[in-house]
Write a structure and sequence with these properties.
The protein has one domain. The protein has 84 residues and is an alpha+beta fold. Helix content is 49%, strand content 13%. The protein has helices at residues 2-25, 35-51; strands at 59-63, 69-74. Strands 1-2 form a two-stranded antiparallel ribbon. It is built from 2 helices and 2 strands, in the order ααββ. The radius of gyration is 24 Å and the shape is elongated.
Length: 84
Amino acid sequence: MKLGTITSFVVAIVVLSLPAAVYAQRMPYVVGITLEQARKAAAAAQTEQKKMNMPTGVAIAVLDSGCNLVLLEKLDNTNLAGYR
């Protein structure tokens, strides 16, 4: 009977500690990037693409801190397989 009590106690400790472990892994909330900031970042990327004299077009994607798409810009002559 003692083994069952000890096992139950260990299981209870593990179950009660799970929310703390999950909470510790969450990223803190931060203010996301605005559309205007995303447009400025895309413009800077387009300027850099022109400096590098890339022969083919590029697709520029701007993500926020949660990896959500904020802006996707396909430049001229971009291969259709270049973005998805």
